[in-house]
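Worked example

This section walks through a single chain of length 370. The input is the sequence exactly as stored; nothing has been trimmed or padded.
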Amino acid sequence: MEYLADLIRIPSVSAMTNRPVVEYAAGVLRATGWKTRELPYRDADGIEKVNQIAAPPGQDPHDPHAELALMCHTDTVPYAAEWTRALNPLEAGGMLHGCGSCDVKAFLACVLAAAAEIEPLAHAPGLRVVLTADEEIGCVGASRLRDEDALRPRKMVIGEPTRLHPARAGKGYCLAEITVRGKEAHSAHPQQGASAIYAAAQMITAIEDLAREIAEERHGFFDPGFTTVNVGTIQGGTAKNIVPGLCRFQLEWRPVPGQPADRVLRTVSEIAAQVSVSIPGCRIEVQPVRQQAGFETSEDAALVRRMEELTGRSATSIPFGSEASIFAPIAEEVVVFGPGDMRTAHSSRECVPIAELHEAVRCLGALMRG
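Given that input, the structure is written out below as tokens.
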């Protein structure tokens, strides 16, 4: 509870440096004999971000090979100005409320509490605690760790709120930006122009048809059991009496495991080519921003069974993207796990059950002891 309250008080939205959170965690771990390794970088705005790998006494954080890595991101999404207690934790009704309370500072607090309770040299061999930056804006920190070959784990537990169910499968996350360029003209003479908004509307209608088609490709372990597709934002036009020359919209999709991350992207690119032909004068650019496939660990995997045993809860799946997608192609077994419910996250309702914190500490401590 103390660790989590402290972490909530540290602002760490993705637009800021995450160093204060990393240094807080490093201080707790080093006090119990752990060694830490920082891997800093600068984001596109020149702001310092820090990934950190920690190893218990007698182990080397510079050794990329790990038997078990516990991974946790350190950034949060922005919070509304009217949420005046976002950084002022509140205990009420058996819950601890605050920004990042379940996504995902609760998991980090539980890792720190478990590490502080373990006797010296009682840690499992090949154990690492890994903190990452910029998960909320595209798993940037985790991707850098992978690309730098700084971490090669055999098994991974990745912190996200799952109500303490071990999630052995998760959807991926993909994002594309579509730019439609037409030709402006006076709206009284539309034949002189080419409407970017009409072209975008044709594309979106076809994407809606694609979403219905792809929903027939079912994966029974998920709810909803299909790849979801969403047009989240759209902007276009200059004035009511001008044929619009530009329209942009964002498309996201969350692929189920086993479905290629670019399945939707390839079809949308084909749609763009068809619409360009149907509306002469329009050019359409489909720009992929993020492509992360889903992941799935076997129900018979040792880590899955061990966590089911420790928690007394059956394995489940998650419908949201996570850093599991980054490391699933490298690690043999990946499970997403943590206290709290993602349905409260990213809002002023965010909270975590206090009882789940204590249970998570017990489970993580057992894993860390091997």
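What to look for: The mean pLDDT is 97.
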